[in-house]
Amino acid sequence: MTTATATYAAKSTRFSGGVRAFVNEWMILFLFLALFAICSVTIDRFLELGNLMNIARQISFLSIVALGQFFVILIGHLDLSIGSAIGLQSVLLAGLVANQGLSIWVALLMVMLSSIVLGMVNGLFVIYGKVPSFIATLVTMNVLTGIAFLYSRGLPISGLPSWLNYLGMGYLFSVPVPVYLMVLVTAACYVFTQHTELGRSFYAVGGNADAARLSGINVKFIGMVAFIICSFLATLGSIGLTARTMSGSATLGDAMLFEVMTVVVLGGTSLFGGRGNVLGVVLGAFLIGVISNAMVLIGVNTYFQWIVKGLILITVVLIDVNSKRK
Amino acid sequence: MTTATATYAAKSTRFSGGVRAFVNEWMILFLFLALFAICSVTIDRFLELGNLMNIARQISFLSIVALGQFFVILIGHLDLSIGSAIGLQSVLLAGLVANQGLSIWVALLMVMLSSIVLGMVNGLFVIYGKVPSFIATLVTMNVLTGIAFLYSRGLPISGLPSWLNYLGMGYLFSVPVPVYLMVLVTAACYVFTQHTELGRSFYAVGGNADAARLSGINVKFIGMVAFIICSFLATLGSIGLTARTMSGSATLGDAMLFEVMTVVVLGGTSLFGGRGNVLGVVLGAFLIGVISNAMVLIGVNTYFQWIVKGLILITVVLIDVNSKRK
Amino acid sequence: GNATSDPTATEPANGTTTSTTEAAGSDGHVFGEDETLIGGSIFTLQYAWFLGAQEGMEKWAEENPEAKVRFQFEDSQQDIQTNISNLENLVAAGAKGIVVFPTDSRAIIPTMVDLHKRNGTQFVVGDYPQQPDDPADAVWNTFVGHDMVALGETAGQVAVDYFESAGKKDPTIVYISVPTSGEVSIDRFEGFSKVVLEAFPDAKIIEEGDTGGGDRNSAQSLMENVLQREPVIDLVAGHNDAEVIGAYNAAVGANRAAEIKFVGIAGDKEVLQYIQDGNESWIGEVLQDPVVLGYTAMDALWKSMAEGEEMPEQYDLPKPEAITPANVADYDWQNWSWLG
Amino acid sequence: MSAVAQEVTPQEITTTPLVEIRNARMEFPGVLALDGVSFDLRPGECHALVGENGAGKSTLAKCIIGENTLTSGELFVGGQRVPKHYDVRDSQALGIAVVHQEFQLMEEMTALENIYVGNYSKRGPFIDRRAQRARAAELLTYLGVDIHLDVPVKYLRTAEKQLVQLARALSQEALVIILDELTAVLPENDIENIFRIVELLKRDGKGIIYISHRLDEIFSVCDRYTVLMDGRHIRTGDVTELTKPKLVELIAGRELSQVYPTLNPPDDDVVLQVEGLTSDAFFDVDLEVRRGEVVGIAGLVGAGKSELLLAIFGDYKVKKGTIRVNGEAVSMTSPRKAIQHGLGLIPDERKRLGLNSALDVRKNATLPSMRKFKKWGVFMDDEAELRKSYDTLESLQLRYSNLWQPTTKLSGGNQQKIVIGKWLIADTEIFLMDEPTRGIDVGAKSEIYRLIAALTAEGKSVILVSPEIEELLGLSHRIYVLYEGRIRDSFEGDRLNQSEVMTSLLGAER
Ligand SMILES: Nc1ncnc2c1ncn2[C@@H]1O[C@H](COP(=O)(O)OP(=O)(O)OP(=O)(O)O)[C@@H](O)[C@H]1O
Ligand SMILES: Nc1ncnc2c1ncn2[C@@H]1O[C@H](COP(=O)(O)OP(=O)(O)OP(=O)(O)O)[C@@H](O)[C@H]1O
Ligand SMILES: [Mg+2]
Ligand SMILES: [Mg+2]
Question: Which residues form the ABC transporter domain (chain D) (predicted)?
Fold first, then answer.
């Protein structure tokens, strides 16, 4: 009996391989810490509280949107439409208030509801229509851009209540409000994916959809949920960014897609599905945030920034990938 | 024994299909033909030779670049760097001639050689460095953009010999020169992938890399070749586009990546690797070309173009995908 | 945007570097004595035109070495979020003043307000006029820029002049816009059509939006298709030279370049070369000098920031110029390094 | 060494081992897979490689083909020590071909191409499809099977895929052919065909390494045997000096007195009743299962056995028919529903349908029963989950190092135990077992047999599909024979004997 308990302890310990296994598993964290340390030592103003808050705020909405995409990637799909969804939701939110004269609360509610519809449309095409997600969401991407431009003619829409800016620019106990949002969303996603049945099902579906189905998981439902979460979090990001810029803009999310993908993949999520981690995604965002910030603090020439950023990224990923056990 | 054999044979015939199976397999072709027929009947100037040549010319270089990407996708990877590679090669080509005063032939040769190096760099990161291709090529994408801008300062570079324009705009027996190029590249890729051992190996590697390795295929070599072909064909496209616009521009390929991906996936190539077809890719390009052309001929409002294009595309893909046997 | 309750603003982490709510200078920094970091937030480096603005700022520094300014330019890549992050990071890097070329007429305002209030950062807005909801949010010292509508108007005038001399009463015009460029594209188009329609109410102006890459290649493909549709086109204008040259190349390819006139916008060497070479298809190029813009913006920033000079709400720059076959010889365009 | 090898006399050629391994040691991170194994393969012999799941048989085979590299020890092929960076291509060039235990096929490519990939017939620079097809047709005739060559292999049945793998190995005209559990997925009639081919190959002087858990086969075709246990070399000898119980003892390390346990008689109440179930693969199937009963289903390949199980489990489209669980009509529209009604499916293809390679051992084991481990209604109770997985997997004597370990590193038999384990954890009442002992060693097999007996003793029921008639006879209370999608007969009591079932199975007139 006692020996059996001992074996149970041994066989149920997460990192039974010791520190080494832990470090390998979380190499991205250690690489981040290393980069952070280097920056702290070599760059003058890097470690100032204000600057760290800068970084955290800059990546807040990026993280939130990336966490949405994470779910879609986790089940082996892709949502290319998030960038234009962010734009559309932004002009909708501002437009409903400024042009249609709705209360901001109603507008927020409508935008959130529409995000669910949007996610369902993507889901329907991909999960039920069996259209490869790349094509399906590329199409919705274009259609959403079209609608956003039709609605706004490409003009920024102002007229949002000024308190909204607090959401994007405000501070609470010297920490930017967006950072709280990010922490909240991250914590929710973490608990959801690690400690709930539904959340764990995403991994099962992504790893092997057939096996998941035969184990009683409603694979289609999970697929729909993934697209809805993605759309919803993109919209949350859009609301935040709109609050930050205080205007609705159809091009608000234009650069987002690639950044989001970088963050998600950098965080160790497999584009083939089934593998990845919420904390990794947020770490990925921090990594990107620190690199961008450091680059400007050092004053690297803009053209070189592309190159230097690339070289740092590839170094990080090379080390990370090759430290993992096969 | 004989009964068992008989059952095998009997059961297998259900897969051998006949006309129905052929139509299903090549649904994209028939959808293209249908679309073509509709356009011919409903749009006035659509069927004019000049217009058809327009379409063919417009998609020539797109097809060539897409065929390169096809190889990378076939082995289950992605090359995001083609867009910036096109930009870099374009400014290099023009710059070597206009700024460095080299002969156009030397410049062409250098650009082609550099494309091979480029492909090798991507290949090294992905195949040997085990970096997910999404990240690796995203990094090279950024680095190449940086280099292109450093070299050109974002200025278009003119000064190419005027005969070069023939490559992009000339006619031979009333068919645009780029169309010959496209046909040539397509034929070469077709024969290569269908009738040579090396070409078939791409399917094997993409289908099941372990099995391919166990079959004695040099999986890493194939991987490298895929990235090199991709880079090479992107450069061929870049040369053609540079000849067409008669100036070297760092942003020449910016819009290309998404178009290329659309074309490749539309043509039935699986993003998970192992499945796809050269002719499908070219058909995909034609489909895109016809839609864009028809849109302008009808005079659809710009904003609606995004939407209408999207709706046509999704319809086509929905039919295509769902006609395929499971 | 409104006030925030950020303690870091009032209690700098370590008194020496982070600035206070008051204007720059109160943290011990002395303009002219200490090196002053000036940020340049550039709309995009994809368009060579903005290099000119950068060049203008650098020119100012060369002429005023006693100011001891050091520049740091950051590329917004036409993206609002990049623009915002760049501004914040520039301030974190210690920039006292920033010349901002915003990505649209609003999105960057709250960030400027925030940085101004918390760090005392001084701004001059260049190129893109800002329209704050609340006048109190106009925290920038002045706006130095061109009028996008005027740019379109000048192009329209070139077209009008041509139609008048050619005696065309009901010309057909194709105008290629770039819808993703939003306001800029709309302003230019509106300026253009206003002038043309005033002079020729019967003119038919067909707006074609380039939904592709917005580059020469996509414009060329678009125009190839338009040429197929439109049997008669008298003139082509567009959002910028990439679009118009693309259209021109398409017309050459279709053997219709002789019957169509082209008006360039925003500056490309090739167009000026065509005009100088007497290429009959080209009747003009409408230009604004970005070097003057950059120089003036920097000048205004320094004067307001270091010398405490009151600035007008807006700095007027020379009107856009039309370079035509008639006056091309007057310009030293070959030496404009920012010309694409 | 090489100098000697070059001057071999004809006699020596026949006595030089085709493959020889001396004192092989092979480590995976954390696992010593081979530990001092010596092995040799002589020309013209069929050498059985046997041992428990995870004993190191596949590892040894992979070392021989250069897929795994020996940590220490020596490997000789044709009397020559293999070069330092010996890999799969080298072994192919040296004339070693293999049928892998796990399918190594390109699912999207045709059967024909799968046979020749990496080894095409060529005319000039181009692939000569005509020559290839002719050769493939010859091969299939030689094999005595008929497979549609132009179908992507993903459309083929499991057995057909296996035959494609075999055809591929034979097409290489190798000197050494390794068959790693070739017969695990083949029906008995095909297996006899395999024996015939093995005999032919032996006559040609080729060497065959025959890995199988079906011990009867070893007595039918093999000349010598080598037993491995936990990576160690237990014994090599002549098959003629061996008896089956002795072999079992060598493999399992203990005597297994009786292979098939005695089953309790079932209760009378019917827990599962299927009436008139029809799909495109089977027609008008009537079937009933009583509490505590094991119902066997026998049938040839393609008879529709798997589809029938899938349909009962809600994962195959049925056209008509009813399914009753405990007397209540249930519309089985999804496996989820089926699981809610107490059903559990152990699928035939565990790699594709049974396991999730991205998940660890524990998460695989609790996949269908996550809702059982809840804290505060929503959250997973990690501790309870780990505990339950541990207890269940230990009771199945799973060989694993950690519950967080990915399942891919486990041997085939151990993977199957996880698939069984997950239905135990889910408290399944009716087990649908599609070839549950495929690829499982004798020891584990008898454990599974005992498990089935124990399950039925607890009042659980089992539908058992197996290609091995003997297994069905030994374990079932009742056997249905499925022939071309129709239930042709059912056997119980006295009629439950090999010859009657076989006759019915093969479709001879009743
Ligand atoms: N790639 C791998 N990485 C780590 N361990 C491995 C790997 N492959 C096999 N092993 C381990 O090596 C040991 C031997 O495995 P092997 O596959 O050779 O067993 P086997 O005798 O073929 O078993 P089976 O009869 O189940 O096929 C097992 O403990 C297994 O877990
Ligand atoms: N991949 C497939 N797609 C469509 N039909 C299939 C497929 N595989 C098998 N079939 C059909 O389903 C029926 C049953 O085939 P299958 O081989 O699964 O039967 P089985 O009795 O389960 O045999 P096995 O002994 O292999 O389990 C046959 O009619 C066969 O043609
Ligand atoms: Mg094995
Ligand atoms: Mg079966």
Answer: 19-255, 265-509
How distant, in Å, are the alpha carbons of D21, D24, D95 from that of D78?
11, 17, 9
CB C55, CB C291: distance < 8 Å: yes
Average pLDDT over residues C188-201: 91
Please state, as a whole number, how many other Cβ atoms lie within 10 Å of the Cβ of residue B198: 14
Percent of chain C with pLDDT over 90: 14
Low-confidence ranges of chain D (pLDDT < 70): 1-14, 257-258, 507-510
Residues D311, D332 contacting (CB under 8 angstroms)? yes
Q: Contact D275/D312 with Cβ under 8 angstroms?
A: no
pLDDT of D444-500, one tens digit each? Answer: 888 888 888 988 998 999 999 988 888 888 889 999 998 888 888 888 877 777 777
- Answer yes or no: is the C-beta of D251 below 6 A from any ligand 2 atom: no
**In sequence order, which residues have a C-beta less than 8 Å from that of residue A105 and are 6 or more positions away?**
none
Indicate the DSSP class of residue D353: I
| CB proximity under 8 Å: A 154-173 to C | 154-156, 158-159, 162-163, 165-166, 168-172
Beta pairing partners, D486: D483
Question: Which candidate, C173, C224, C176, places its Cα nearest to that of C200?
Answer: C173
Here the tokens at position C102 are 């915003």
Residue D406 DSSP code? B
The verdict on A53 touching C (C-beta cutoff 8 Å) is: yes
Domains and CATH numbers, chain D: 16-252 (3.40.50.300), 258-342+429-510 (3.40.50.300), 352-427 (no CATH)
Question: Does the pLDDT of residue B8 top 50, yes or no?
Answer: no
How far does B321 lie from chain A, in Å, by closest CA?
A: 6
Q: What is the pLDDT of residue C10?
A: 40
Which tens digits make up the pLDDT trace of C280-331? 899 999 988 888 888 988 988 888 888 888 888 788 788 888 888 888 888 8
According to DSSP, the β-strands at C97-100 and C122-126 are parallel
**Which chains have at least 3 CB atom pairs separated by less than 8 Å from chain D?**
A, B
Residue D179 to residue D191: CA distance in whole angstroms: 12
What's the complex ipTM? 0.86
CB contact residues (below 8 A), chain A span 299-318, against chain C:
299, 301-303, 305
For residue D298, which phi and psi values (nearest 5 degrees)? -110, 150
- Element containing residue D379 per DSSP (H, E): strand D379-380
Residue in this structure with the two tokens 């760099």, named with its chain if needed:
B121
Rounded to an integer, what distance in angstroms lies between the CA atom of residue D26 and that of residue D128? Answer: 41
Residues facing residue C282 across a β-bridge = C262
Q: Which residues of C touch B246 (CB under 8 A)?
A: 249
Tokens (6 digits) for A140: 């919705």
Helix A278-298 vs helix A27-42: angle between axes, to the nearest 10 degrees?
Answer: 20
Per-residue model confidence (pLDDT) at position B118 = 95
Helices (H), chain B: 2-13, 19-25, 27-42, 49-74, 82-98, 104-123, 133-152, 165-169, 177-195, 197-207, 209-214, 219-245, 256-266, 278-298, 302-323
Rounded to whole angstroms, the Cα distance separating C72 from C90 reads 8
Angle between helices B177-195 and B49-74 (to 10 degrees): 30
Return d(Cα B217, Cα B325) in angstroms, integer: 29
The mean pLDDT of chain B is 87
The arrangement of strands across the sheet holding D224-229 comes to D80-81, D72-77, D19-28, D31-41, D232-238, D224-229, D46-51, D207-211, D176-180, D96-99
Residues A274, A74: contact at Cβ < 8 Å? yes
Whether the Cβ atoms of residue C61 and residue C69 lie closer than 8 Å to each other: yes
Output the pTM of the full model. Answer: 0.88
